[in-house]
TrEMBL record:
Membrane topology: Peripheral membrane protein
Similarity remark: Belongs to the complex I NDUFB10 subunit family.
Function of the molecule: Accessory subunit that is involved in the functional assembly of the mitochondrial respiratory chain complex I. Complex I has an NADH dehydrogenase activity with ubiquinone as an immediate electron acceptor and mediates the transfer of electrons from NADH to the respiratory chain.
Intracellular or extracellular location(s): Mitochondrion inner membrane
Region described as Disordered: 1-24
Keywords from the UniProt entry: Electron transport, Membrane, Mitochondrion, Mitochondrion inner membrane, Respiratory chain, Transport
The protein, known as: NADH dehydrogenase [ubiquinone] 1 beta subcomplex subunit 10
InterPro entries, A to Z: NADH_UbQ_OxRdtase_su10, NDUFB10
Gene Ontology cellular component terms for the protein in this record: mitochondrial inner membrane; respiratory chain complex I
Primary location: mitochondrion
Top-rank lineage group of the source organism: Eukaryota
A Pfam family annotated for this UniProt entry: NDUFB10
Length: 173
């Protein structure tokens, strides 16, 4: 490649872009509104938001790791204690959701084992099958036949009736 370039063919760009010259002495209204918006609205909001973020960074709160304290069961509530009834109902709903997730996780593990093992699933996934059978039986014993609108009171009555039937069957034997 030659050392001397053809300066007419490859022109060097100007080092500075020329500044457009103003033709009027009146200030641009857009610049005025941008500056006014920045000082009146943007700056205070930004300062408040930064202050809130600084305050929140000290107290991290993870809502998805919320731990509820255990409350008394519905059978332990005093008569007419409606707050206890409400808390027991909320506790029952949380327990039901947790039990549903446990069944779903065990079912997913079972499906993964079947997928992984293929034709040998009956002998290699026996432990998962037994666990799934136990978990679903326990879930059905507790929440079966309650339906979508089941609540803590109907679940408690179901458990009470089941215990009475077991006692009666034990006495007959």
């Amino acid at each position: 490649m030659p050392e001397d370039h053809d300066w007419d063919a490859y022109k060097v760009p100007p080092t500075r872009t020329p500044v457009s010259e103003r033709t009027t002495s009146v200030p641009n209204p857009v610049n005025f509104f941008q500056t006014a918006f920045s000082y009146v609205l943007d700056t205070p909001v930004t300062l408040v938001r930064e202050w809130i973020e600084k305050w929140q960074s000290k107290n991290k709160y993870y809502y998805y790791h919320q731990k509820f304290r255990r409350v008394p069961d519905l059978s332990e509530c005093l008569e007419g204690d409606y707050l206890c009834y409400y808390e027991a109902e909320a506790q029952w709903r949380r327990d039901r959701m947790v039990d549903q997730e446990i069944v779903e996780i065990v079912r997913e593990r079972m499906a993964a084992c079947k997928q992984r093992e293929g034709p040998n699933q009956f002998q290699n996934c026996a432990k998962e099958m037994e666990l799934l059978a136990q978990v679903t039986k326990a879930y059905q014993d507790r929440y079966g036949e309650l339906g979508y609108h089941g609540n803590a009171r109907t679940c408690l009555m179901k458990q009470k009736h089941r215990m009475m039937e077991e006692r009666k069957a034990a006495q007959e034997n």
